[in-house]
Amino acid sequence: MNGAASADRVTRRRIRQRRAAFVVAAIVAPLAVLALYSCLPLVGVPWAEPFVDFYREHWLRLACYGLFANVASYPVAFWVLGGDDPSKLEDPASPGVLAWVSAGAATLSWVVLMALMLGIA
Which parts of the chain span the membrane according to its record (predicted)? Predict the structure, then answer.
């Protein structure tokens, strides 16, 4: 009985770690993209200037779209990563690498949305 309870606690801890890693990655990845775009005009990349100007004017709308893209991708990415299935938690790449890949996909969709809003794409 103790062995089963211990295994159950380990499984629940791994699920919590996977969720936490994805949430952290989903927050950090879009911020990294924003930081990158904000720094591009400083190093002389001329095509980034319209984005920075647009971001200054519409930062709240862009932040809401980014939040929506990440929140909408969370259940799908968590399901793809195995969700609450304990058999898929043995993957050595869990939770970190796969969470960053999923957050990167959410961020990519967010960047495409911003590019469409700017008329770049």
Answer: 21-47, 59-81, 93-120
Kindly report, residue by residue over 5-33, the tens digit of the pLDDT: 676 777 778 777 777 776 676 677 667 76
74: containing domain: 2-118
Chain segment 89-116, per-residue pLDDT in tens? 455 455 566 666 666 666 777 677 767 7
Compute φ and ψ for 119, nearest 5 degrees. Answer: 80, 20
Q: Is the pTM of this model over 0.70?
A: no
φ/ψ of 105, rounded to 5, equals -65, -40
Contact call for residues 102 and 81 (beta carbons, < 8 A): yes
- 3-class DSSP state for residue 119? coil
